[in-house]
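Q: Can someone sanity-check these two? First one:
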Amino acid sequence: MYQTSCEEHCRKLDSVWKNVESALQALSRAKGEQFTSAKTQLRASYECYEHATARYSAFLEKAKTSEARHELRLRQVIDEDREAIVSEKLREATPQERDKAHETASQFFLSVHSRASSRSQRSGSSTISLAAVQARAQAEAVKARGQFGRKEAAMRLEKARIEAELEVLQHEKEAAAADAQASALEAAVEQDGGECVRPHPPLDPFRPDTTGFELQH
């Protein structure tokens, strides 16, 4: 029953997290006005994931078993990493929108001054080029942070998994040692029981056959 419930919760979590991943990809590809709807979709998808993982955590807490505690700690690490990924992506979107607005304003500035003089046009072009370079550099920096963030999250998940497996292995080792000790004691008791002499019942001093002589009348 416990294992079946865990599998059902995990399938649900995998399903809703796939929706979050799709929303993350959509936000990465979004441009201009698409950012707002993409961010809204990401927040909604992640909220569904939070509800699902909260239900699973509550189930594990009620189980109150060693296995459930291990799974709960692992889920907490996974949820922390996934929350960091979503938060980072939402933070990335904000500067991108500002860069887009800045680029649009710069283009307008260039258009106005190009009608005034060719010198103003060259100055505006330089402003646009600088803004484009800055935006590109910022985008590359965000991309690099995202890549290393995903690697860090994967490493933390792997570390948590190994620690959980080591703890389970330690419990199994202790249980196996206890079983071996119990088996050895049982074998020793059986061997001693085959060789020992059963204790005699207590002697009755009033019975002739136990006192060694006949009572004289």
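And here is the second, same format, sequence then tokens:
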Amino acid sequence: MQSKANSVEQYLNDLPEDRKESLSIVREAIVK
């Protein structure tokens, strides 16, 4: 899957709900 998002937030918003939740959790762990 290739995304045309220009930011991480935009990429996450474009994801299907089931994947968005998982990747948001991973992103929070990385940002800490």
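A (reply): Looked at the second one. Residues 1-32 form one domain. The longest helix spans residues 17-31.
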